[in-house]
Each structure stands twice: as C-alpha cells, then as structure tokens.
Amino acid sequence: MLPTAHYTAFIKRRAAELGFMYCGISKAGFLEEEAPRLENWLNRNMHGQMAYMANHFDKRLDPRLLVDGAKSVISLLLNYYPPEEQQQPEDTLKVSKYAYGRDYHFVIKDKLKTLLHDMQQEIGEVGGRCFVDSAPVMDKAWAQKSGLGWMGKNTNLIRPGTGSFFFIAELIVDVELDYDGPIKDYCGTCTKCVDACPTQAITEPYVVDGSRCISYFTIELKDQIPREVDGKFGNWVFGCDICQDVCPWNRFSKPHQEPQFTAHPALKDLTRGDWREITHELFSELFRQSAVKRTGYAGLQRNIRFVLGEEAPTGPVLPSSNEPRM
Length: 326
Known about the structure:
A hairpin with a 5-residue loop joins β5 and β6. 30% of the residues lie in helices and 12% in strands. It is built from eleven helices and ten strands. α1 runs antiparallel to α4. The chain has 326 residues and is an alpha+beta fold. It is globular, with a radius of gyration of 20 Å. It has one domain. The chain has a four-stranded antiparallel beta sheet with strand order 1-2-7-4, sandwiched between helices. Strands 3-10 form a two-stranded parallel ribbon. Strands 5-6 form a two-stranded antiparallel ribbon.
C-alpha cells in the first residue's frame, strides 16, 4: 500500500475510534468558488455585528495562509443530535440542541489534538493545526469539497442518510493524502427550510442573511433585539433549530453517543415560569460548561424577556464578542 493510502486509511480509522461520524479529506488550496460569494455576502452586510467575519478575508479562503506548508484539509463530523428523552418540550422555552451539553469547542478540540498526536506517532513529523470555530476557516465549504455532504438551502451541510445535526471541525496538515470528491446536491425542489424561517433569514435558497437569523439575535447581537422581529422567535431563547427540524433529511438523525453532550437533567423540566425566574446560580448550574455561556446570564435574561413579550431596558446588554482566536 502506498504511504498516502496507508496514512489516509489510518486517519479515517482513528477518527472513527475517537467518535467522529465521518472523515473526508481535501487538497489544501484557494477556494475559488467561495471567494465571490463571501465578498458579496459581506458587501450586503449580512454578517451584521459579527465584524470578525470581515477580518482575514484571504486566510478565510486559503488554508495555506493559516498553516505553513499546508497540503491537506481533514474535515470531520461529530453528531450532537440528542436522545428523545433529553429534548425539550415544544411548550417551554428552548435552547438549540447543539448547546445541551458541554461546549463543543472543548470536546472536539481534545479529540483533534489526540488525532494529530496519533498521526505524528504513525506518520512521523506532521505539522498542522486544529480548528473548531477558532479561526477563519470555511468549515462547511471544506466539508463539502471532501464529500461529507452538500450545502443545503439553509446553508447547513447536509449528509444523505444522516441529516445535519453535527459539528464540523478540521485538521489542516502539511502531509499529502488521498483526497475525496464532492457529492451532488439532494435538496431538489424542497423549500421547507426557506418557508419555515420566521424571520425570513433565508432570503433565497442557499443564501442566509445572518443578521436576520434567530441565532444571531439571541447570541451575537449585543444590543436590544429590534421590535420588528417581535413575536417571531417562537420559544427560542438561545439559537434556533427550525430550519433543521423541518428538513426531511433530519428524519434520519440518530442520537449521539458522546457522554459530554448529555443535557443537564433539569433542563427539559423547566417551565416558562422557571425560565422567567431563572437565577444566576441556576444559570451557572445548568450551563456550567455549555455554549450558552457565550451569551451570558444578562444576555439570556434579555432573550427570555423578549420571547415572553416583556419590556426590557434599553442599551447594550452583552459585552462585545471577541474575534475568534487565531
């Protein structure tokens, strides 16, 4: 077996042993097709207050500017779809499924570091970096190029027979490997995600105005939520799963097997009244290591008041978010 084939087989086998659903590999290079799309998206100010999206434009499109001598982008998927008994009832306030358990940044980064270490043990000297939303990497574009799925009309990566409830991460390394190719788009004529979005954030198939997404309003926005979207959030107080919940492909979603993603047992039992009266102590207990900590106690209170139709103080309520670490 040629070294590249052997190394590639080892990486994919080890990734599976670490709990990743799928692993695909692409040749590192400039993302020619994504460049004009990203530029147009930024020019239309669809990133809103997410100023970091406009930074490092060149690095965002070329991983060789992030990792010296980069030759391969290893894309990995990790399932986070919760078991039915952990999911929140429809009539209570809700957080996005990805935030039920421990913050995925920590969970996945540990797995990536292990995989990179094991590659170095097996292959020899390997230079590379691990990425989990921590630098300007277009993770969905690389996952698509490596055949892990196609970009759906809601701009989430969708994998046939699996759906879209998974995290995407990358290892960018300076080793030549065998490369996978993209698969076709299976969205067809379906527009369920476009039709279901209550804030019309999916302005057209395959284009999402990030500044109109419920996830943006409840996580990224640092000011008060504008009244023009009053009554459109349903019960979502952190993130939103609507465009994924209605996607026909997600009927294939299966519960994850990652203990660290297990929800706090009290989360699904909170009533609307419990949410309204949530204390800082309970917030810290429920979301001790959760991604919900990103919006903070004050931010979550703002979101709860908005969803419940209560007036809130004016002015900024959240600290400015830091640019993702390089």
